[in-house]
Amino acid sequence: MLTPASLRFATAAFALALLGGPTAGALAGPTLKGRALWAHPSDAGTSESSVKAFVEQLAAAHVNTVVMEVKTAAGLFWPSERFGPAVVPGYRDFDFPAVLVRECHKRKIAVHAWFFDFAEGAGSDVVETHPEWLARSPEGKPTTDEVLRGRPYRLAWMCPARRPGYTDQWLIPLIEEFAARYDVDAIHHDYVRYPGDLAPDTYCFCDFCLDEIPRYASYYSTTYPDHSLLAPMDRPHLEAHWEKSPKVLPPTWKDYSREMKSRLLLGGSFFPGGNHDLDYFFYEYRAHHIALFTREVKEAVQKRRPHVEFSAAVFRNPVQSGRFIGQDWRRFAPWVDTLMPMDYRGHYAGDFEMHLDLLAESIQQQKVWARDFRHLWIGIAAYQLYEAQHEPLLRMRRLLRENGPVAEIGAAFDPVAEALAAAAPDLKSALAAYLREPKNAEELAAKLDAFLASPPPGYYPPALLNRTLERVRAQDVEGIVIFSAAGITSAGLWPTLADFFGR
Ligand SMILES: [Zn+2]
Q1: CA dist 323 to 58, 232, 382, Å?
Q2: What is the value of pTM for the model shown?
Q3: Does residue 132 surpass a pLDDT of 60?
Q4: CA of 457 to the centre of ligand 1 (A)
Q5: Is residue 38 over pLDDT 90?
Q6: Cα 198 to ligand 1 centroid, rounded to whole Å
Q7: Sign of CA dihedral 475, 477, 479, 481
Q8: What is the per-residue pLDDT for 151?
Q9: What is the pLDDT of residues 440-474, one digit of tens each?
């Protein structure tokens, strides 16, 4: 194992090697301690030989940790005994994690089992059998009743706080079952938070939370529930009298509707006439329950397997994510070993160059916030670096299949014409011909299918990935985790990855 001191030495040696210094020949093996990839079971297939081939591909790219999805919105990717109806078809008869772990360990590749924690599929087994465990809005609706960007929202978010509920009756038991069954190196948390992209302040106001938020924040005394708890006001500021904590709930609280209760819990004041500060306690309650889950699951799993570690995919700024999605990940430190902030291109404003600067700035902040964690590995989304190359192809293909306006196809074609001319001159000519004389749209769409399935080298410039990875490494971090195996495949970037991780 590399110590931080030897890591620094290795980084310095690497810099010298780049300059062609005398140590170049002495360097042996990769310098980055964490070389990880997020992956989906479909990347590895459902046969012994396909899993072996996938693992060989990882080894060839010097990947030493694979973070593999085993619970998604689609269900479970192992033949669970206790949660049988939740198993994804195709994974009942093939014990995918068993084969993956065996093959990875032969190659000294660590396996992190990746769980979607609080996000379920709209029609998943647990949503059907326990709708009372769903997170609820002030109107009493689950997230699947929401519409986002004009489309029905498909993730069913579960209430993290409710006991007994999803967390202690379903999520922790299924992670325990998995950890007891498979010799994985770590359990990986994802969606370890409240929903954020549709309505940050809307969840959770389920029956349990409506009772629990006031109890958690001591908005009344459970011993003297009707007492106002008012004390003499001898100082000029209302909030200066918080120590004796007056009763915050109004006398008619129990007659309030769910919407009225929710409104007070978000918009009310700790003191009548004081600042509108009850939202502070709402956000605190959510951050508490997310961190509590990371604790409870670790304590449960380590009873069976004391050496299993934990990792987590988190948003980049815990101060902001604590407020917006209940994910103040600084609180996870005792229960999560490896922190993996998702420092994706899409989370940074500006052009590519500006994004690199913002990324470097973020990582320096994260190193301070994450200093209580054993490991900090920076997450990069490879495919998001290539939107400008990828998106126009998808748009043209869709327009061709929909018989869309030629002018729109032309608008998508123009920005990528030069790159196509260099990488796939036949396809470029065929598209240009279609713009002159639109015919055989389906044939052309099929050509785009073939291109997208197996892009020629160079169309997706390796420099974008390389420069991003170099910028991350220049921040002196211990590891990098890349999203995802499929993204690397679809952009033809395995050689680039192998080259970078191998240095
Ligand atoms: Zn709730």
Answers
A1: 37, 33, 28
A2: 0.91
A3: yes
A4: 49
A5: yes
A6: 17
A7: negative
A8: 93
A9: 999 999 999 999 999 998 899 999 999 999 999 99
Q: Which amino acid is at 120?
A: E
* Cβ-Cβ contacts under 8 Å for 152 (sequence gap 6 or more): 144, 146
Cross-strand partners of 377: 479
398 alpha carbon – ligand 1 mean position (Å): 40
Provide CB contacts within 8 A for 489, sequence distance 6+: 43
Q: Are 152 and 114 in contact (CB under 8 A)?
A: no
Distance 68 CA to ligand 1 centre (A): 29
Name the least confident of 16-30, 219-233, 268-282, 316-330.
16-30
Q: How many DSSP H helices and E strands does the chain contain?
A: 19, 13
Question: What does the alpha-carbon distance between residue 354 and residue 494 come to, in Å, rounded to a whole number?
Answer: 26
> Which residue is listed with tokens 């500060």?
277
> How many of the other CB atoms lie within 10 Å of CB of 71?
26
Of 67, 69, 93, the residue nearest 80 (C-alpha)? 93
Question: What is the residue whose two structure tokens read 């490991």?
Answer: 375
- Ligand 1: centre distance to CA 161 (Å): 6
- Cα maximum dimension of the chain: 85
